[in-house]
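New to this. Explain these tokens.
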Amino acid sequence: MRLADQAQGQCDFATGVVRLGNVEVQTRPKRVLEIACRRVVFAERFTIPARHEANVPVQMEDGEEPQPTVERAVESRTMKDGVRVARTLLGDENMVRVARILNQTNSSYRLEEGDYFTTAEPVITYRGLAARSSIQSDQVERE
């Protein structure tokens, strides 16, 4: 037998009201932000010379929902035959600056501002005990 049944309780999930005997409690919906992948675009026009690699300026597009401070990374992938994206830790939205691209072809490779680069996925990073987090809540917990 359930506890709610023993206490003559009722739950109305539509209204968020829980009744136990003659006690009525109004619940609140839990507001959890979804941590989503973010679209990354080139921040400016850039040319990678033949047989070179470069740190290319990138930026995350603003999402409709504010995101919690979470670090993101992009996985290695081929942009075209001979041009590859290196796996890169981008950090959070405030830290994103550059991503590494390798051009192994015999001709230069041109990137245009605002063009889609890749999708950044949320990641968990681990730091040593001496590392300081830029997240205010982490700093309070350590002190």
In short: The first helix runs from residue 3 to 6.
